Structure to design on (1104 residues):
């Protein structure tokens, strides 16, 4: 990087920076702000970095590919689009052709022969003379995978440039043309021109991802300069000037020691410019030589006029307001207030000044533009012209930041300012704000209004005030200080919420008399057109306050005294010598030392020992200081002793017996084990009605949760998060099942197969359920008819397993078997059985033994009936054409129009080609609709089962329970345990299933599906010796490396071995959760639920 000289040489023309260009460039900078030596330094900078500037397309640079490789447009599968061009006006034809020729010469356009065609048109540039070509890429944007990047907030970015002695702005020369487009993606931008089909070689200007991509590129180049010295917004680079101009007492400025003709702040700024230009030039970027300003005293940054005094109103907006004449009706008055309201951040007392005009906009007000309104309009114009500049907050300054708030019945007005370091009486304003109140808020009392105004003002300016070292809040209501200091005296919980929220900010509160309070006018400003809509919901209070401070609001609290139940504790029940009486027959009652208690619980017990001693002797505990004795005495007075039994006082007179640690387990056994093993609430209520000890609620919760019988009989069923499978191509994935039917024509079994995406059915009646018949039917009716399937999903029926084992070995078809007790994973064909049986029963007029005669017609009806999730019939989804019904032939509908003449071979081929061309689009639409419905149903499933979704992974050595799914369909299941265990988790295999072992070390032979495993809360830890397990380390390692998802992986069931599916790499992986499948299937159908009696053939499916 060239070093900045202290004595710059005189200008000498170079290759790009010619004498003519130097004159124009110097004219932009020679505004009387820079000294001659400083202008020479600017010329020297441009000469040194001339490769970083461009005045024409031939000089435009390109980002280096080693930093920014060519962009590949991420698009979804689609059909090429062809759009008609917008006609070129004859008067502009030659000029447009000249622009295209320049783009071709510059390498921005190149010839193309792709099948895409996009629109383009011309618009005028800002100068109002030259034209710019704009490419309309809406079709490309529709299939583009969107980039989620966002640009900075312009107001916050421009705020950093205000209040600086100078600044700089750089505009990249046709920035998008500096980023190259990958050749594989260029065809997508093809468009038709008078010079033939052309395509873009650079980043398209109308592409939806261009803005975030290019913004990230420039930010990456200048990442070392952001945010201290540079601010980036897409292709605009702002250079932030020094914090001060180093003024001297004699109204001069400090200069550099080597040259008294160059000011220090100018030299520091140009050093930053030198470094930024070097980074841009090294990356291959070029700045516009006509639009770039290296150093100026003031300029426009993202629509904000930034000056050494701060941000000031834009002159064009000020002129529009200043030239506004008298308003003739309500609409013009509202328009004036709305336009002036844009600059309300710059005007103090805006609402008070505009009040006469505001009255005319009210309902039923008579419009009369009189002297008061004319004076208000004139005053408002003058106030905008004389409005102070807004400065950014200096968070490193020790000077205080002031938030002045005033609230009226109309609005909450406030401003933020910071004092001058040299004169604390002088303030630099940051912003003026006004929040309009709704009708409900306007009816608050004045005291409540003032508190609410402070609450809302702090919330609205929270992002600005975070990081302020010293905050001062100014109010004209002195009583707010007392309200904040005594929150307990407030009449309701709403005010206390506001107070707690306000006290979360650290500030000093000052009272300012109303006559000197500046925001008074802002608080009387109503809502005007153009105001930004507030995101605050007045019907809801800040929930985060309740969560942070642990507040609770009682609904319909009662003040009735609780009933009195005098209770004399049974000494037999509290006698520790009778522990064995309450011991469970299969489990020892835990000792109190084994309870999982908080760290503060033992200290509370020790404190109660001191209280018990004090109640008996009323003597101060030994060694307790005066400071500690006072709170101890207040605590001890909450208890009293009678007949050597300690009671805790109760305001309702129902005093509780204090239970010492050695008797607490017996109380829990009596209140839980001997009263029906009720839940936590019932047990805690029984204890709380009669007894008390420190942290007794936590002890009750732990005891009930760790009860073995309660865990074994729990009704909770966990669910695992659903996975949404991508729709497979038609008949790439097939679900098959065999079910019983009544005897019909010698057949009592029905084998059925369905496509996973279209639900297109194939079925036949069979006489025997053996592998030969099943395998032959699959090969002839599925593989030979629809091609080789990628996957076939079945349950664990013996005939299906054997048949698929042979097909997998000889035909290469992948076989996936659903996990044990998870028949819903094969739900596509399971609920298809129900629909098919319903149709057969109705076609046979209720004669169930005639179903074989009507099976072909039932299958035909299933195939041609439209499905909600497909948006068409399975027949159309599979074949691409609508089925022809008998009615179509009789009525000659649009599906088969009557022929008018013989078709030629060419016409017939053309019709079929058109149908084939629509096929891909139809399939894409079907897949998109199916996938969207599955995603929607998965979200509904997660919402409905949010409380039971289990994402926890059990580590090796943790105790777990196993869901007893084998008895869930049994008729005698009511008194049988719903969970088995405890078992020991040995880990999780690659498929997500758990390897479990009994407490004696016997390892279960098969992995257990994740949805069957639940945490066991033990009352004591159980060490697991490594040498206790009954399997070898190699066998255990093989089980851990398996991919099975559940109990029935064939690798653990013996031959024939069938490779399990890999859910991690399987693009069509199904979910093993039972309930999730319900949501992921057809929205217009449902599953069979409950036990086997719901299947109409009369007995459980033996295949399962």
């Amino acid at each position: 990087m060239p070093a900045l000289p202290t004595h710059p040489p005189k200008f000498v023309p170079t290759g790009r920076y010619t004498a003519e260009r130097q004159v124009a460039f110097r004219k932009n900078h020679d505004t009387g702000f820079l000294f001659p030596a400083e202008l020479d330094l600017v010329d020297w900078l441009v000469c040194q970095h001339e490769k970083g500037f461009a005045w024409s397309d031939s000089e435009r640079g390109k980002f280096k590919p080693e930093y920014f490789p060519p962009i590949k447009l991420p698009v979804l599968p689609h059909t090429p689009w062809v759009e008609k061009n917008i006609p070129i006006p004859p008067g502009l034809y030659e000029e447009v052709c000249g622009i295209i020729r320049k783009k071709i010469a510059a390498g921005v356009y190149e010839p193309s022969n792709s099948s895409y065609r996009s629109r383009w048109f011309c618009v005028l540039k800002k100068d109002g003379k030259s034209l710019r070509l704009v490419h309309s890429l809406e079709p490309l944007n529709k299939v583009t995978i969107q980039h989620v990047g966002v640009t900075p907030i312009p107001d916050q970015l421009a705020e950093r440039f205000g209040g600086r002695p100078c600044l700089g702005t750089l505009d990249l020369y046709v920035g998008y043309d500096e980023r190259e487009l990958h050749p594989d993606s260029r065809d997508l931008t093809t468009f038709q021109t008078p010079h033939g089909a052309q395509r873009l070689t650079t980043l398209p200007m109308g592409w939806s991802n261009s803005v975030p991509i290019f913004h990230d590129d420039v930010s990456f180049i200048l990442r070392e300069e952001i945010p201290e010295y540079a601010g980036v917004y897409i292709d605009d680079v702002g250079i932030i000037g020094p914090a001060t101009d180093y003024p001297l007492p004699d109204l001069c400025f400090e200069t550099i020691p080597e040259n008294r003709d160059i000011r220090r702040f100018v030299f520091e700024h140009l050093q930053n410019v030198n470094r930024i230009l070097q980074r841009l030039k090294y990356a291959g970027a070029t700045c516009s030589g006509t639009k770039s300003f290296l150093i100026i005293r003031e300029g426009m940054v993202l629509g904000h006029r930034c000056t050494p005094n701060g941000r000031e109103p834009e002159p064009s907006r000020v002129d529009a307001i200043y030239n506004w004449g008298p308003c003739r009706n309500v609409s013009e008055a509202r328009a004036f207030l709305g336009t002036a309201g844009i600059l309300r951040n710059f005007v103090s007392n805006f609402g008070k000044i505009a009040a006469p005009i505001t009255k005319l906009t009210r309902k039923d007000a008579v419009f009369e533009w009189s002297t008061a309104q004319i004076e208000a309009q004139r005053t408002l114009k003058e106030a905008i012209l004389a409005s102070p500049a807004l400065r950014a907050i200096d968070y490193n300054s020790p000077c205080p930041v002031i938030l002045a708030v005033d609230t009226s019945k109309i609005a909450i007005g406030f401003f933020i300012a910071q004092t001058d370091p040299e004169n604390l009486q002088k303030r630099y304003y940051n912003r003026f704000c006004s929040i309009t109140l709704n009708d409900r808020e306007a009816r608050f009392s004045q005291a409540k209004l003032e508190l609410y105004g402070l609450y809302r003002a702090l919330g609205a300016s929270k992002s600005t005030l975070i990081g302020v070292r010293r905050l001062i809040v100014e109010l004209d209501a002195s009583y707010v200080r007392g309200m904040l200091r005594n929150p307990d005296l407030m009449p309701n919980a709403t005010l206390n919420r506001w107070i707690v929220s306000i006290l979360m900010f650290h500030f000093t509160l000052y009272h300012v008399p109303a006559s000197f309070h500046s925001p008074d006018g802002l608080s009387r400003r109503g809502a005007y057109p153009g105001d930004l809509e507030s995101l605050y919901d007045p019907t809801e209070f800040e929930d985060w306050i309740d969560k942070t401070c642990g507040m609770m609001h009682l609904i319909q609290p009662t003040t009735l005294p609780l009933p009195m139940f005098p209770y004399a504790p049974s000494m037999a029940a509290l006698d520790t010598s009778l522990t064995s009486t309450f011991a469970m027959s299969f489990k020892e009652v835990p000792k109190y030392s084994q309870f999982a208690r908080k760290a503060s619980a033992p200290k509370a017990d020790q404190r109660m020992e001191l209280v018990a001693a004090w109640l008996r002797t009323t003597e101060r505990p030994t060694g307790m200081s005066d400071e500690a004795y006072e709170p101890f005495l207040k605590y001890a007075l909450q208890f009293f002793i009678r007949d050597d039994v300690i009671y805790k006082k109760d305001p309702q007179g129902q005093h509780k017996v204090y239970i010492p640690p050695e008797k607490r387990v017996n109380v829990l056994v009596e209140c839980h084990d001997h009263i029906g093993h009720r839940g936590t609430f019932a047990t805690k209520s029984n204890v709380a009605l009669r007894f008390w000890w420190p942290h007794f609620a936590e002890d009750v919760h732990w005891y009930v949760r760790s009860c073995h019988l309660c865990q074994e009989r729990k009704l909770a069923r966990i669910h695992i998060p659903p996975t949404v499978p991508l729709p497979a191509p038609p008949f790439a994935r097939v679900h098959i099942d065999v079910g019983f039917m009544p005897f019909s024509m010698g057949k009592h079994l029905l084998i059925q197969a369905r496509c996973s995406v279209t639900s297109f059915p194939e079925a036949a009646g069979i006489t025997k359920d053996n592998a030969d018949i099943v395998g032959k039917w699959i090969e002839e009716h599925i593989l030979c008819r629809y091609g080789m399937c990628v996957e076939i999903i079945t349950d664990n029926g013996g005939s299906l397993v054997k048949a698929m084992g042979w097909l997998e070995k000889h035909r290469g078809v992948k076989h996936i078997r659903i996990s044990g007790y998870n028949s819903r994973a094969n739900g596509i064909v399971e609920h298809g059985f129900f629909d098919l049986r319903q149709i057969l029963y109705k076609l046979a007029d209720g004669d169930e033994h005639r179903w074989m005669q009507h099976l072909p017609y039932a299958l035909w009806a299933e195939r041609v009936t439209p499905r909600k999730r497909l948006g068409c019939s399975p027949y159309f989804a599979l074949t691409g054409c609508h089925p022809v019904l008998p009615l179509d032939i009789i009525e000659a509908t649009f599906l088969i129009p009557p022929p008018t003449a013989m078709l030629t071979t060419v016409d017939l081929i053309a019709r079929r080609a058109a149908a084939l061309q629509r096929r891909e689009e139809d399939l894409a639409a079907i897949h998109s609709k199916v996938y969207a419905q599955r995603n929607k149903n998965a979200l509904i499933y997660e919402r409905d089962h949010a409380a039971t979704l289990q994402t926890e992974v059990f580590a090796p050595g943790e105790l777990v329970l196993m869901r007893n799914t084998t008895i869930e369909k049994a008729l005698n299941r009511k008194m049988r345990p719903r969970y088995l265990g405890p078992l020991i988790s040995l880990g999780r295999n690659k498929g997500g299933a758990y390897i479990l072992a009994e407490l004696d070390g016997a390892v279960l032979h098969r992995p257990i599906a994740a949805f069957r495993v639940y945490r066991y809360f033990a009352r004591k830890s159980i060490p697991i010796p490594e040498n206790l397990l009954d399997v070898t380390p190699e066998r255990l390692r093989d089980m851990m490396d398996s991919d099975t998802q559940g109990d029935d992986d064939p690798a653990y069931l013996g031959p024939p071995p069938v490779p399990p599916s890999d859910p991690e790499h399987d693009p069509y992986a199904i979910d093993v959760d039972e309930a999730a499948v319900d949501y992921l299937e057809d929205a217009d159908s449902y599953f069979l639920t409950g036990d086997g009696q719901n299947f109409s053939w009369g007995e459980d499916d033996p295949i399962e």
